[in-house]
Design a protein that fits this description.
This protein has 254 residues and is mainly α. The protein has eight helices and four strands. A two-stranded antiparallel sheet has the order 1-4. A two-stranded antiparallel sheet has the order 2-3. The radius of gyration is 21 Å and the shape is globular. The N terminus is likely disordered. This is Cytochrome P450.
């Protein structure tokens, strides 16, 4: 189902008619996103021969994919009425991109490793029947959890030291936000190169995290504990977890 939805989003066609299979597409995007030495030391970029070749191959494959989609779209536009055309992937919302579900997964992993934080968040979200975009503006602890998750598990990780302890309260007194105004903390960048979807992304992650936390008690499968959660990073596109999070949801008695 996930693969089918992704292919409909990116290629306007179901899985069985895919131009590029999902694993290959993810591999291409991973190749494109892996950093090279030139990303950290620009004047040594000329040494990054293998990384340059990998990116060049990825660009060729992405170009081929886009050209095939455009050719198919031109063919459809020539023979179909506008209402008969499939959705354009460039017009879709950013909720379906890699970084948002990855951030939610990191957040749930940290909350399961720190049940006291999960409990505090449940107390905050219990004041609402269903959390929406307006409600999250009144949830400072939820916002602090998001900031702490992005501090520990940034979408575009850099090789800089970070305090490893998960502690959302570090942001209680600080005025640090996520919008690129505080240069000690720039998970989405700043200035003209800042992520254009930052406000939407923050809102979507908060709502997506708050509602399952409100509706369910979360626990790990039998035989697992907080220390057994794999917190390794796979790297590549979106800083994904090394292993998917497995958790059991049981409806709360509210």
């Amino acid at each position: 189902m996930t693969a089918n939805t992704t292919l409909l989003l990116l290629q306007s066609r179901p899985l069985e008619k895919a131009i590029i299979e999902p694993p290959e597409l993810v591999h291409i995007l991973d190749d494109e996103s892996l950093p090279g030495i030139g990303d950290f030391v620009p004047w040594l970029a000329f040494l990054d021969f293998f990384n340059s070749r990998r990116r060049w191959r990825a660009h060729r494959r992405i170009d081929a994919l886009i050209e095939s989609i455009l050719a198919e779209r031109r063919r459809l536009m020539a023979h179909c009425a506008p209402e008969g055309l499939p959705h354009d992937f460039l017009q879709d919302n950013s909720e379906r991109k890699f970084c948002l579900p990855t951030t939610v997964e990191w957040a749930m992993s940290e909350l399961l490793r720190h049940p006291e934080c999960m409990k505090r968040l449940q107390e905050e979200v219990d004041n609402y029947l269903m959390v929406n975009d307006d409600h999250v503006q009144e949830m400072p602890y939820l916002y602090n959890i998001l900031k702490e998750v992005l501090r520990l598990h940034p979408i575009a990780p850099l090789l800089v030291p970070r305090v490893a302890k998960f502690w959302p309260d570090r942001f209680l007194e600080a005025e640090t936000d996520l919008h690129g105004q505080h240069y000690e903390y720039l998970p989405f960048g700043s200035g003209r190169r800042m992520c254009p979807g930052v406000r939407l992304g923050i809102s979507v992650v908060q709502v997506t995290l708050a509602n399952p936390v409100r509706e369910f008690e979360w626990e790990l499968p039998q035989g697992q504990n907080a220390d057994s959660i794999d917190m390794s990073c796979k790297g590549g596109l979106g800083n994904r977890k090394g292993a998917p999070l497995l958790a059991i949801a049981r409806r709360r008695n509210l």
